[in-house]
From TrEMBL:
Domain Aldehyde dehydrogenase: 17-476
Family to which the UniProt record says this protein belongs: Belongs to the aldehyde dehydrogenase family.
Residues at the catalytic site: 253
Metal-binding as UniProt keyword: no
Family matches, as PANTHER family: SUCCINATE-SEMIALDEHYDE DEHYDROGENASE, MITOCHONDRIAL
InterPro entries: Ald_DH/histidinol_DH, Ald_DH_C, Ald_DH_CS_CYS, Ald_DH_CS_GLU, Ald_DH_N, Aldehyde_DH_dom, Aldehyde_DH_Superfamily, Succ_semiAld_DH
A Gene Ontology BP annotation from the UniProt entry: gamma-aminobutyric acid catabolic process
Alphabetized NCBIfam families for the sequence: SSADH (TIGR01780)
A GO molecular-function annotation: succinate-semialdehyde dehydrogenase (NAD+) activity
Protein name: Succinate-semialdehyde dehydrogenase / glutarate-semialdehyde dehydrogenase
GO cellular component term of the entry, any: cytosol
Record PROSITE patterns: ALDEHYDE_DEHYDR_CYS (PS00070), ALDEHYDE_DEHYDR_GLU (PS00687)
Source species, domain of life: Bacteria
Length: 481
C-alpha cells in the first residue's frame, strides 16, 4: 500500500468508516508547504457516545479472548505496520513535517511497542497470597479495566497511539481514540492497520473533530473506565478534573522542561552530540527535548562554541527532501512562539550565537538557534520552548546545577554528562525527574518506563510497568475449604 491508501477521510466507529453527523469536516495541511492535503470529519459528542457504546459492546467478547489470542493479533498488527513502514512514514511526514528518517524511526517505534505488548500480553500474572485463615485461599487476578479513551498529540502521532492502543489490545481493553487535529491521518491509519490485522469491529474506534466535545464526552461518560492522554499540562489538568466526577483511572504524559547538564569533567564532543540529538529532534517539538542547557564554568565557552557550530550545520528543509534533518514547525503559532522566546532572551541580555530567526525557506521553517548567557529571568527558564532554540546557562557547582535543574514544576526527562562515577550516581539520585539520561541524549525505548513526576504526569507508558495501567487488581477469597 502507499501513503494515500492510509489517508482515511472518515472516522472508525463500530467497524464502519463514517463521516460526522452533520457532514462537517476539518482541513489538514502539510506544514512544509501550507497546502491542504485533505479533510477529516468534524465529529462531536454524539459520534463519541456511539463510539463508546461500540467499544463497550466489543469489550464483552474481546475481554474474554485468551492472552495467546491477543498476542497473536498484536503480532499481526506489528507485521502490518512493518510491511507498510515507508508508506506510514511518508504520510506522517506529509502531515507532521518531521524528516522522513525520523518518521521511519517513529513508525518503527510504534511497531516495537506493539511487539513488546504482544509479549507482555502473555505475562500478566496474578498472585496466590498465604492465607491467614486455614479454610480460605486468597487469589489475586488482573483484569482489563474496560473501555479506554485515548487522546494523542501531533508531535508523535503514530507512536503515542502505539503506547496507548498497544497495551489496551494486550490486556483485552477496547478503545476510543482521538488523534490531534493537526495530524489525524497517522491516527486514523491505526484503524486500517487494525482491520488488516483482523481485529473485531468496535475493538478500536477512532474519532476526529472537536477536541472539547470529544474530550468532554470521553471524560464524562461512565462507560469509559480510563483516560490516557499525551499533551500539554493545562489540558491534562482539565481532563483530570473532568474525569474526577466518574472516578476514572488516568494516565497523563504532560509537559516537560528538560535540563541538560554538562559538567567540567564531561566528554565534550559526546555531550554536544547528545545535545544536538536531544534538542533538535522533531525540530525541538518533543516533551523530552532538552529545554535548558547548563554548562559548568570551566567548559562553558567551549561547549557553546561546539554546540553552535554543530547546530549551524543542520540541514533545514521539507521532511521528504534527501539529507534534511530539521523540518518545519507544526504551525505558524509555533513559529511565532519560538521567535518570542528568542526576542525575550535577547531583550534580557542573552547572546545570539547562531540562528535566531525564521529560516530563509520561509513558511514554518526556523533556524536552529543557540543563545548563550541565558539567565533564570528569561521565559525559557520556566516554559517549554517546543522549538529549535538552545539556551545555555552557566553554573559553578554541582549543588547549584542540581538546584537549578529541579527549579521547575515539571519533572519528565533530564540529562547530564560527566565522567565521574560518584557524581553520576549522586546527581541522578538528586534530580527530581521520571527519566534520567547519563551521557545519553535520547533514551526512549519501548522496554523502559516513560513518564514524569510532579506536573509532568501520572503513570508510565511502555515497559512492564505500562501494562499495569490497563489492568485492575481483583482479590478473590475462596472460603469454606
Ligand atoms: P499541544 O499544545 O501539544 O497541541 P494539547 O494539549 O493542546 O497540546 O493537545 C494534545 C491533544 O489534546 C490533542 O489531541 C488535542 O486535540 C487534545 N485537546 C485539546 N484540547 C482538548 C480538550 N479541551 N479536551 C480534550 N482534548 C483536547
Amino acid at each position: 500500500m502507499n501513503w494515500a491508501d492510509f489517508k482515511r477521510d472518515a472516522n472508525l466507529i463500530g467497524g464502519e468508516w463514517v463521516g460526522a453527523d452533520g457532514g462537517g469536516t476539518i482541513d489538514v495541511t502539510n506544514p512544509a508547504t501550507g497546502e491542504v492535503i485533505g479533510t477529516v470529519p468534524n465529529a462531536g459528542t454524539d459520534e463519541t457516545r456511539r463510539a463508546i457504546a461500540a467499544a463497550e459492546k466489543a469489550f464483552e467478547t474481546f475481554s474474554r479472548t485468551t492472552a495467546d489470542e491477543r498476542a497473536k493479533l498484536l503480532r499481526r498488527l506489528h507485521a502490518a505496520i512493518m510491511d507498510n513502514q515507508r508508506a506510514l512514514a511518508e504520510l506522517l511526514t506529509i502531515e507532521q513535517g518531521k524528516p522522513l528518517a525520523e518518521s521511519m524511526g517513529e513508525v518503527g517505534a510504534s511497531a516495537a511497542y506493539v511487539l513488546w505488548f504482544s509479549e507482555e500480553a502473555r505475562r500478566v500474572y496474578g498472585d496466590v497470597i498465604p492465607s491467614p485463615w486455614g479454610e480460605r485461599r486468597i487469589l489475586v487476578t488482573k483484569q482489563a479495566v474496560g473501555v479506554v479513551a485515548a487522546i494523542t498529540p501531533w508531535n508523535f502521532p503514530s507512536s503515542m497511539a502505539a503506547r496507548k492502543i498497544g497495551p489496551a489490545l494486550a490486556t483485552g481493553c477496547t478503545s476510543v481514540m482521538k488523534p490531534a487535529t493537526q495530524t489525524p491521518y497517522s491516527g486514523l491509519a491505526w484503524g486500517v492497520l487494525c482491520e488488516q490485522a483482523g481485529y473485531p469491529k468496535g475493538v478500536v474506534n477512532i474519532l476526529t473533530g472537536s477536541a472539547s466535545a470529544i474530550g468532554g464526552e470521553m471524560t464524562s461518560n461512565p462507560t469509559v473506565r480510563k483516560i490516557t492522554f499525551t499533551g500539554s499540562t493545562p489540558i491534562g489538568k482539565m481532563l483530570i478534573k473532568q474525569a474526577a466526577d466518574t472516578v476514572k483511572r488516568v494516565s497523563m504524559e504532560l509537559g516537560g522542561n528538560a535540563p541538560f547538564l554538562v559538567f567540567d569533567d564531561a566528554d565534550l564532543d559526546k555531550a554536544v552530540e547528545g545535545a544536538i540529538a536531544s534538542k533538535y529532534r522533531n525540530s525541538g517539538q518533543t516533551c523530552v527535548c532538552a529545554n535548558r542547557f547548563y554548562a559548568q564554568a570551566g567548559i562553558y565557552d567551549a561547549f557553546v562554541e561546539k554546540l553552535a557550530a554543530a547546530s549551524a550545520k543542520l540541514k533545514v528543509g521539507p521532511g521528504l527532501e534527501e539529507g534534511v534533518v530539521q523540518g518545519p514547525l507544526i504551525d505558524d503559532k509555533a513559529v511565532a512562539k519560538t521567535a518570542s522566546f528568542v526576542a525575550d532572551a535577547l531583550a534580557k541580555g542573552g547572546r545570539l550565537v547562531t540562528g535566531g530567526k525564521r529560516h530563509d525557506l520561509g513558511g514554518q521553517f526556523f533556524e536552529p538557534t543557540v543563545i548563550a548567557d541565558a539567565t533564570s529571568e528569561m521565559n525559557f527558564a520556566r516554559e517549554e520552548i517546543f522549538g529549535p532554540v538552545a539556551p545555555v546557562f552557566r553554573f559553578e557547582t554541582e549543588e547549584e546545577a542540581v538546584r537549578l535543574a529541579n527549579d521547575t514544576e515539571f519533572g519528565l526527562a533530564c540529562y547530564f554528562y560527566t565522567r565521574d562515577l560518584a557524581r553520576a550516581f549522586r546527581v541522578s539520585e538528586n534530580l527530581r525527574y521520571g527519566q534520567v539520561g547519563i551521557n545519553a541524549g535520547v533514551i526512549t525505548t519501548e522496554v523502559a518506563p516513560f513518564g514524569g513526576v510532579k506536573e509532568s504526569g501520572i503513570g508510565r507508558e511502555g515497559s512492564k510497568y505500562g501494562i499495569e495501567e490497563y489492568l485492575d487488581v481483583k482479590y478473590v477469597c475462596v472460603g469454606g475449604l
